[in-house]
Amino acid sequence: MTSTKLYCIAKRTVWEAYQLVRANRGAAGVGDETIAMFEQNLSGNLYKLWNRMSSGSYFPPPVKQVEIPKAKGGTRKLGVATVSDRVAQTVVKLMIEPILGPIFHKDSYGYRPGRSAKQAVAVTRERCWKYDWVVEFDIKAAFDQIDHGLLLTAVRRHIKADWILLYIERWLTAPFETADGARLPRVRGTPQSGVVSPMLMNLFLNYALDAWMQRQFPQCPFACYADDAVVHCRRHRHRRSCMPLPRGWRNAGWRCIPTSQASCIAGTEAVFKPARM
Length: 277
Description:
Strand order of the largest sheet: 2-1-4-5
Radius of gyration: 20 Å
Mean pLDDT: 84
Helix content: 40-55%
Number of helices: 11
Strand content: 5-15%
Order of helices and strands: HHHEEHHEHHHEEHEEHEH
Structural class: alpha+beta
Distance between the termini: 41 Å
Largest sheet: 4 strands, mixed
Shape: globular
C-alpha cells in the first residue's frame, strides 16, 4: 500500500517508544497529564501522535521547568516533557541511537546502552596505577549552555532523515514553562531530563572534547560521563598543556592532582556521578 504521509514512520516504532516511556515512568509535564491519564485513551493518543509526526505537523508543547536542589547547594533546572512528547522523543532516539552510538569514544560512558558510571570509575582506577597526574573537570551548566547551531551541524553530519532533523530542531527551541505559567524562550541548551538530550550532549562532546583530546593529546587517556571527565597524564608538563580546554568550554571548572592510591579511589566516584533524571 502507498502511504499518503509525508514521512514514513512505522506505527510499531511509536508503540515500542510508548512501552519504554511507560517502563521509565516519570513525572507529569505541562498540563499535569500522567501516564495513567494518557492510557485512558491510549490508542487514540498514540494514533494522533503518529499521524502528526508522519505528516510533519507535530509541534512539541512547552517543557515544564522544575528546580531540584543540588547536594552542595543551589538548584538544578530540569525540563519535564509531557507523556506524549516523551514518546515522540523516544521514537527519534530509537532511530538515531544505532547511528550515533558507534561513533562515540570508547571511554564515553554517559547515558549509553550497556555503559555506566561504575565502568568509568573502574577504568579510571586502573589508569591511576600507570599515570602520575590526574586532571579532573566538569563543565558548568553544559546542558543549559550548549550552542544550538554547532549542535545541529553535528547532527546533520550523521543524520539525514528530514523528519528527525525537523523535530530535533523543534525540541531544542520549545519554550520552558515555569510554575507560575510564564513561558521562557530558549535559544541555547537542551533540557537535561529530555529523552534525546543526553544523546545530543554526547554527540556535541564527541566533537568538542573527545575528538579534540585525541587529536591534541593522544598520549593522555581519558574517561567521560556526560559533562564530567578525568584525564590521565604521565608528566607535569602534559597536565599543564591540557588546559585550556577547547573553545566553547570556557565555563569548565577543573583541578589537577597527583595520582595516588588514596586520591584516585576516593575521588573518581564523586566525579562520575549520574545526574538525577
